[in-house]
Design goal:
Elements lengths: L27 H28 L3 H16 L2 E2 H8 L3 H13 L3 E5 L7 E5 L1 H28 L2
Antiparallel strand pairs: 1-3, 2-3
C-alpha cells in the first residue's frame, strides 16, 4: 500500500460502475445534487483558471508551486517526489520545473549526499506569487463552500 508524504495511507478508490445490490435506488434528488455539485466545482475551476491566467501560470505550475511550498515546510522536495505528487512522469516534471525556474519562481538545490538528487525551493518571487494565488483561491473557496456544504448529505 502506498503512503503519502505526510504518512497517510493511500487507499485506491473503487471507481468501477458496479452497484452493490444493497444500495438504494437513485432518486431525482440524487441527480439534482450531483449536477449542482459538479456545477459548483466547474465554477470554482473556471474561476481558478481565470486567476492563474492573470498571473501567467498554468494549473500544473500552480499545483507544482503548492507541492513545493508544502514540501519545503515538511522536508525537502525532490524532483521525483514532485512528479509523484502531481501524477506525472519524471521528464514531464523536469519540463515543468524548467519553466518555473525560467520565470524565477523556483530554484534547484543539489543534494550534498547524492548528486543525482535535486531539491526544489520557491524563490522570494515564487513565495509572493503563490501567496497571491492562494489568497485569490481562498476567496473563491469561501464563496463556493456554502453551496457545497448545502449539497452534502
Amino acid at each position: 500500500m502506498r503512503t503519502s508524504r505526510q504518512g497517510l495511507r493511500l487507499v485506491p478508490r473503487d471507481t468501477s460502475l458496479a452497484t452493490p445490490a444493497h444500495e438504494r435506488p437513485i432518486t431525482e434528488a440524487d441527480y439534482l445534487t450531483v449536477t449542482a455539485w459538479r456545477d459548483a466545482l466547474r465554477g470554482f475551476m473556471s474561476a481558478s483558471k481565470a486567476i492563474l491566467k492573470q498571473v501567467g501560470i498554468t494549473p500544473n505550475q500552480y499545483q507544482a508551486l503548492l507541492a513545493i511550498r508544502f514540501g519545503t515546510r515538511q522536508q525537502k522536495l525532490a524532483v521525483g517526489e514532485l512528479a509523484h505528487s502531481l501524477h506525472i512522469r519524471h521528464n514531464s516534471a523536469v519540463t515543468l520545473i524548467n519553466k518555473l525556474v525560467t520565470h524565477g519562481l523556483v530554484r534547484r538545490i543539489s543534494s550534498h549526499q547524492d548528486r543525482r538528487v535535486v531539491y526544489l525551493h520557491l524563490t522570494a518571487k515564487g513565495e509572493n506569487t503563490l501567496r497571491k494565488l492562494v489568497t485569490a483561491h481562498r476567496q473563491e473557496l469561501e464563496m463556493t463552500a456554502p453551496t457545497l456544504r448545502e449539497l452534502l448529505p
